[in-house]
Amino acid sequence: MPAEARSDGRIVIVGASLAGLRAAETLRDEGFSGELTLVGEEPHPPYDRPPLTKQVLLGRVRADDVGLPRRRAVEARWKLGVRASGLDLYGKKVLLANGEQLPFDRLLIATGTRARPWPDPDAARLDGVFTVRTRDDAGRLAERFAAGPRRVLVIGAGFTGSEIASACRERGIEVTVAERGPAPLVGALGGTLGAFAARMQRAHGVDLRCGVTVTGLKGADGRLTGAELSDGGRIDADIAVIALGAVRNTEWLAGSGLAAGPRGVACDAGCRAFDMYGIVTDDIFVAGDVARFPHPLFEYQMLSLEHWGNAVAQAEVAAHNMISSGPHRRPHLTVPAFWSSQFGLNIKSIGVPTFSDQVVVAQGSPEEGRLVAVYGYRGRVTAAVSVNRAKWLEHYRRLIETAAPFPPGPGAADRPESAEPVPSDVPDPKVLSHGPTVALTGHLPDRRLTLVRPGG
C-alpha cells in the first residue's frame, strides 16, 4: 500500500451483493484495517445472480445454493435485511430504515438494480405474476415451473426474458413472449442479431409476438388467467413473468445532493460520485449496476452497465481508490463484456453494440448458427458479439481498445467473402418492452438544476 494511503477510519458499503462483496475483499487485500460495514436490503449473504435465470429455473441448482464464493475473510459488520433510507452528505451518515445512523469516513454506493414491476399494482399481486431479480424470486418461480404450468407468458424479450423463455422450452413448458419492439434482444444487439434471435426462438417452439404490448393482466379469484394484447388478441396463461428491464436503486439518495436519478449515480472514471452540480466528491464512491460513468472509448458518454464482469472490475477500482492518494488512483476503463446462454447457444459480447451505426457478420453466418458480428461507429470498431464462437472475442477486444478501422480487415480463415456492413438498426429504447443491459445515457443530467449563485 502506498505510504499516503488511508488505511484506517470507517468505510460503509451500501449494497451487499457482488460489487459490495468484491469491494470489501479488495479493501482488506490492499491493507485497509479500519471499521468496515456492509448494508444489504435482502436478508441473504451475497449471492450470484446469473444462475437464477439459467440453472435455477431449469431445476439444476437450488436457489439456496447460488452464494458467491468468498475470496477471503472481510472482517466486517453485516447489516442484512435492512434498507438504506437516506444519506446525510454533510454529516457523513447513512440513514437506515430501522432508524439507525451509520457514520462514515468513506462510502461506497453499490445498491444495484431491482426488477421493473408490472405498472398495475392490483394485477401485479395476482397469484402467478412474477419478476425475477432476487434469489427468492427465482426459487418461487422454479417451484411453479416444476409443477407443470399450462402456459407461461413472458412480457419483454431482452436477455432476462429470453433466458426465461429458453428455460421454459427446455422444461417442455409452452411459452408466449410479448415484445413491443421488432425482435428479441434488439435493444442490446440491433436489428441483424435481433432477427436471428427471433428465428431461433420460433425454431424452438416459442410463440413470439413482436410489435405488441400487453394491455392488461386478467385474473379470477386472485389467480392469473391470462392477458390481453394491444392487437386485440388474448393469451391464456397461468404464469406471467414480467421482464421489463431494471430500475436503479437510487430513490434513497433523493435530496442528498448527489447526482443520482433514474439512470444511476454519476461518477468519474475513478468511481468518485459527482454532486448535483457536477463537482466530484472526495469520499463517496460508486460501483456496479447503479453507477453511471464516462468511458473514453465511447466518446466519454456516460455508461450504465448491468454486467457481472463490470460490477467486479469497477468494485475493485473503487475500493483501491477509496484508500489511495490521488497519484496512486486508477481509472475504471474495462471494456464492457457480458454473456448469455439460451436455446442451446452461448452469446457473448464485448464493447457496446448500441454505440454503433453499422454491423457486419465478420465470421460464420446466421444460417449455421455460429457467427461473430462486429459493430462500428463512424468508421471504427466499437463492439463484437459472438454466437458459439467466443474464442475470437479477445481479437476484437484489441480492435476496440485501439479504435481500429471499421469494417475490420481479414482476421479469420472462415471470414465470409461478401461481408458487407449494414445499418446496425439499434432502436430507440422507448419503443421496446425490455431495457438494454448497456445504456448510453449521454452527457445530460437527470434533471434540470436551479443554479445557485453567490451574492456579490
Question: TL;DR?
Answer:
This is FAD-dependent oxidoreductase. Keywords: FAD, Flavoprotein, Oxidoreductase. This protein has 456 residues and is of the alpha/beta class.
Structure, described:
The protein is an alpha/beta fold and about 450 residues long. The chain folds into 3 domains: about 10-55 and about 65-115 and about 245-330, FAD/NAD(P)-binding domain (3-Layer(bba) Sandwich); about 115-245, FAD/NAD(P)-binding domain; about 335-430, 2-Layer Sandwich (Enolase-like, domain 1), CATH 3.30.390. It is built from 7 helices and 30 strands. The protein has helices at about 20-30, 120-125, 135-145, 160-170, 185-205, 310-320, 395-400; strands spanning about 10-15, 35-40, 75-80, 85-90, 95, 100-105, 105-110, 115, 130, 150-155, 175-180, 205-210, 215-220, 225-230, 235, 240, 245-250, 260, 265, 270-275, 280-285, 290-295, 300-305, 335-340, 345-350, 360-365, 370-375, 380-385, 420-425, 440. The protein has a 6-stranded mixed β-sheet with strand order 3-2-1-7-21-20, covered by helices on one side. Helix 1 (about 20-30) runs parallel beside helix 6.
